[in-house]
């Protein structure tokens, strides 16, 4: 443990490697207790916050993941780590990786994935996702990642980002109204659909986010301008939804509980889209823009058929 207080990168990398191995051994309880003092946990988090070395980052995240993977160890260490600023340190890691120059990102191509996969693991823990819901900085960073025009060029991170957002929204329903009117974010989510067709967890997460957002919008009073924007978005991007649904057909007789939950999220989305389109068609019919209305009717018809 004393090795943690050295400033040598190679030494620290080896120390975290050994600690991870020990926490996977039968001696994990006594070693977890040895890590409990605030002085030691604070030092670990300081290293997390300032490391610029890709190898050390890998060893630290492996060590922290080992803590998460052991129920007894996490029961001892997670609350002290949260109290000492674990969430802020991990957000700092994420923003540091995002702000690197293109050349640096090329040299550290796996670092961003490492950080995001670890955030994904963390956000699955109830007390951590609850702490994340009160961190406006984290929500802003994740939303901006989905809105980024570069996201499809780094599709590997899309799955982790939507899973983290979904986990946070499960415990942070108060956040849904804040993001429900962010059309670039909604558009970004739709653009992620083709990037996660084979990742069941990410696809479930994405549809759950869409359903929560659209239910929130549906429950609020939309003025004519807002309705125009939503109708335009779904008319223009509906092909992405259609492709996803038609490429992921599930046999009703082989429906798993997870499939049933996903089907529920999708149905809520289609109901909300139908609601927007019906209102928009009704509002615009008298204005005679038949091309736009025709597209909206196609979307509405598809939704109604899929729901029947």
UniProtKB/TrEMBL annotation:
Keywords: Nucleus
Main location: nucleus
Subcellular location: Nucleus
Keyword Cell membrane belongs to the record: no
Superkingdom to which the source organism belongs: Eukaryota
Presence of the UniProt keyword Nucleus in the record: yes
GO-annotated cellular components: nucleus
Similarity comment text for this entry: Belongs to the SAAL1 family.
Stated name of the protein: Uncharacterized protein
Organism field: Aegilops tauschii subsp. strangulata
Taxonomic classification: Eukaryota, Viridiplantae, Streptophyta, Embryophyta, Tracheophyta
């Amino acid at each position: 443990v004393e090795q943690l207080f050295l400033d040598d990168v190679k030494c620290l990398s080896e120390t975290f490697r050994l600690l991870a191995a020990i926490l996977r051994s039968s001696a994990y309880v006594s070693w977890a207790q040895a890590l409990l003092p605030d002085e030691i946990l604070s030092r670990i988090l300081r290293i997390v916050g300032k490391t610029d070395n890709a190898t050390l980052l890998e060893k630290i995240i492996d060590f922290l993941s080992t803590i998460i993977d052991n129920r007894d160890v996490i029961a001892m260490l997670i609350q002290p780590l949260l109290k000492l600023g674990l969430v802020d340190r991990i957000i700092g890691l994420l923003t540091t990786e995002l702000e690197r120059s293109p050349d640096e990102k090329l040299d550290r191509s796996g670092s961003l994935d490492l950080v995001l996969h670890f955030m994904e693991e963390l956000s699955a823990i109830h007390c951590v996702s609850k702490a994340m819901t009160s961190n406006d900085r984290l929500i802003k960073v994740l939303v901006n990642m989905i809105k980024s025009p570069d996201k499809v060029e780094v599709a590997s991170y899309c799955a982790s980002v939507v899973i983290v957002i979904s986990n946070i929204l499960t415990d942070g329903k108060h956040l849904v109204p804040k993001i429900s009117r962010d059309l670039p974010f909604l558009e970004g989510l739709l653009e992620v659909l083709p990037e996660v067709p084979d990742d069941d967890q990410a696809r479930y997460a994405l549809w759950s986010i869409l359903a929560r957002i659209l239910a929130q919008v549906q429950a609020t009073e939309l003025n004519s301008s807002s309705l125009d924007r939503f109708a335009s978005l779904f008319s223009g991007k509906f092909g992405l939804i259609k492709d996803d649904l038609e490429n992921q057909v599930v046999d009703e007789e082989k429906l798993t509980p997870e499939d049933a939950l996903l089907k529920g999220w999708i149905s809520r989305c289609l109901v909300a889209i139908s609601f927007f389109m019906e209102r928009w068609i009704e509002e615009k019919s008298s204005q005679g823009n038949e091309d736009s209305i025709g597209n909206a009717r196609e979307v509405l018809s598809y939704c109604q058929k899929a729901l029947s």
